[in-house]
Amino acid sequence: MLPSLLEYSAAQLTELLGALGHKPYRATQLREWIWKHRAASFEAMSNLPPALRAELASRFTLRPLELVELSQSSTGSGTRKFLSRLQDNHLVESVILPAAVGEGGSRSSRLTLCVSSQVGCAYGCRFCASGLHGFTRHLSAGEILGQILAAEEVAGERVDNLVFMGMGEPLANLDNLLPALDRILDPHSLGIGARHITISTSGNVPGLRRLAAYGKPLRLAVSLHGASDDVRSRVMPVNRKWPLGELLPALEEWARTQKHMLTLEYILIHEVNDMLPEADKLADIARRLNAKVNLIPYNTVQGLPWVRPSEEHCRRFCQALLSHRIPVTMRYEKGHDINAACGQLRLRRMEKEQGATPDQGAAPSRA
Description:
Strand order of the largest sheet: 1-2-3-4-7-8-9-10-11-12
Strand content: 15-25%
Number of helices: 12
Low-confidence stretches: 101-107, 356-367
Radius of gyration: 21 Å
Mean pLDDT: 88
Number of strands: 12
Order of helices and strands: HHHEEEEEEHEHEHEHHHEHEHEH
Distance between the termini: 25 Å
Structural class: alpha/beta
């Protein structure tokens, strides 16, 4: 696979072009083409010498993924989910979430992208489609950044809010995520502020401490989905490795040192974790961490046995948290009609393409 220039810093671009016999100003021109003009090909870089363009094209890529499928919600939410093929033929998916409409019909300018960090997932959360075919590999920093540029091409506007809640566990891929964040935060690259970036984790305690040491005021969301070890281990095998007795102290440490209130994500699954006594336990955890709770009614995944609770029951669970004075929101998944939960579009495509297996990627479509 060709490495992507997307992940190169300004200093690295200068060093690269210097090794090719070019002066530093060529690196500035190259960086402007990549980030200011969002050039999709080296041929478009008209002020670079043809020989340099040809040399770069033979050794690097600007777009490490190719759009192969796009689904748009028919509910009017504006949610769009796209599936991309990587250079080694694996598939990865991302979701564009439009700005919410406020009172009086006003709409903020925020365009959110749900970004994937891995091909598949090793954590095997029982409610999630991402791990049904297991873990394949980490995404490179360039592949993470490529999703953002692909989303901007699909949407026709700049992405200004990121949530790393797509396929994979971001904190298991920090060797690539942190360099990607460097480019995302860099005002001369993507220039998205830290307060507009949310990292979601299933509870990787060492990764959580390493992310805290990164020292940027990122937002953190924790996929809790169970307020006791018994319940959480039933739906999240990661809890057996890092149970609540290890996870909660690490989150307390994060809460003491970070500016933003952390979010506890809690998918409501009928007769698994939606019992009202669980709401009381969840309230205790949220109070301990000074956290807010984001309730998400289960988004049905074909082939999994879980059931979505009724709206009335979800409201009762929410009210139980509110009675404890816990900040809580109820988030109904945008794009439920286009299989917007993590991994579903990829899973469907893999099943359609002959020869697709989790360890060899998907064969190119002949349709």
